[in-house]
Amino acid sequence: MCEGGEKITHIFSVLKKEVYAGKKGSELDALAESLIKEAGGKPAFKNYKPTFADTPYRYTLCLSVNNQIVHGYPTDAVILQKGDVVSLDLGMKYQGYYLDCALTVGIDPVSPANKNLIESTRQALKKAISVATPGHTFGDVGHAIQEELKTNNLVPVKNLCGHDIGTFLHGDLQILNFGKPGTGEPIQPYTFFTIEPMASFSSPMGVIEDEYVFITGDDRSSAHFEVTLMTTEKGNIVLTPILDL
Question: Own/partner pairs for 150-155, CB < 8 Å, 24+ apart?
Fold first, then answer.
């Protein structure tokens, strides 16, 4: 999974540079699929059917813009504009293992409020990673996210969460974006999971707009960051270090 993590992180470094006004969602989707195949991987989301959906997802990339929290469709109809808040969420299967990560970028000029939203969600993920180690619980992880967002007058989205991952894309474990210290399952060494804070200004629950697409209840922007990590005996290794991009 380490090699796959390096490859998908590189893919994100390329995709991030292609997020600009006038870019079509379909162009980003085609680029993401091409880069995954060049890396020797397979798109993890394309033709995948999660339990909440009736039909398989049709795209390689999830492209969520402004009030869309997750699972937005990267189509010809989506043309990015100045001021947009854009979340890229991508999964890849590489040598039998899955990697999953996401990041949010703003297209200048970005409002001060949206800049704070993006940066605070990034910082919430950093805080969560710091406690995602043996000796802590998944409640500690959720609490770290919740408190960092609260400090910046934001709220976590509570009905969307991280998950365990490995030879499967989504397991049964739910890594919530809120919690109480010392609660939840203890974090064990040598486990693989994602942490993915999703934040909004005032909407603690994502609203289903479509079969896949979740939007904010206040119709304002949302931000989303995600990494796949592996715990060790005493710490963790971030396999998809997209926060360094």
Answer: 151/120, 152/116, 152/120, 153/201, 154/116, 154/117, 154/120, 154/121, 154/199, 154/200, 154/201, 155/199, 155/200, 155/201, 155/202, 155/203, 155/204
The answer to whether 193 and 165 are in contact (CB under 8 A) is yes
SS3 content of the chain, % helix, strand, coil (to 5): 25, 25, 45
80-115 pLDDT per residue, tens? 999 999 999 999 999 999 999 999 999 999 999 999
Residue with tokens 């293992």: 97
Domain architecture of the chain: domains with CATH: 2-240 (3.90.230.10)
**122 phi and psi, to 5 degrees?**
-60, -45
SS3 call for 99: strand
pTM here?
0.97
Residues 152, 116: Cα–Cα separation, whole Å: 8
Closest CA to 198 of 122, 132, 129: 122
